[in-house]
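Before the break, one more example. Copy the sequence into your notebook; we will annotate it together after we see the structure.
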Amino acid sequence: MENIINTNKSIIDDGQLNVFKVMTLTLKEIRDKVDNQQSLDRQLLNDFGKALSISVKVFDGTRIDDLLWNINTELKKR
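Here is what the structure looks like once it is written out:
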């Protein structure tokens, strides 16, 4: 994931980069942050919601680069 982000950084803005960072968090890590009452950036949570809805919408067994392209395209529409 990190390599994909690094190679495409020039075409990905900060908001989209947050989506990819959030996607790499496990649900356990998110739950631990909440349980420990660590503040989660509201924008990061919003991006996480987008990542979930978009990834569910476009994930149909496509290759990961196609999936990331579709996510990037969907984010640009919003």
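The radius of gyration is 13 Å. The chain has a mean pLDDT of 63. Try to locate both features in your own notes.
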